[in-house]
Task: inverse folding
């Protein structure tokens, strides 16, 4: 039976999401910095790699969620985990039921 999330989980998600997104975007910026400071790459190669990465990264859940919807709570968390924006350790404050469902779903991927 699918887990019906608790109101506490929803409130906690909304509280934690901005911090998770900031940390994820900081990680992306570190990766961009490595691309831009690569002394062995031409300026044009750096430019086009940055263009490709930013286009791709803008579509990731860790970047694009602005107004989360309750009904997609589990989807958001699974996507954030899949993208590396969130780890299972980051979910320790959530209900055991939600954590377990996320773990099970990630194992099936």
Result:
């Amino acid at each position: 039976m699918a887990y019906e999330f608790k109101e506490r989980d929803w409130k906690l998600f909304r509280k934690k999401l901005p911090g998770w997104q900031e940390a994820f975007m900081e990680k992306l910026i570190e990766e961009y910095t490595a691309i831009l400071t690569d002394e062995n790459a031409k300026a044009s190669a750096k430019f086009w790699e940055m263009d490709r990465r930013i286009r791709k990264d803008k579509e990731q859940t860790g970047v694009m969620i602005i107004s989360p919807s309750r009904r997609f709570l589990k989807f958001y968390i699974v996507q954030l985990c899949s993208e590396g924006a969130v780890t299972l350790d980051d979910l320790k404050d959530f209900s055991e039921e939600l954590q377990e469902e996320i773990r099970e779903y990630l194992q099936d991927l």
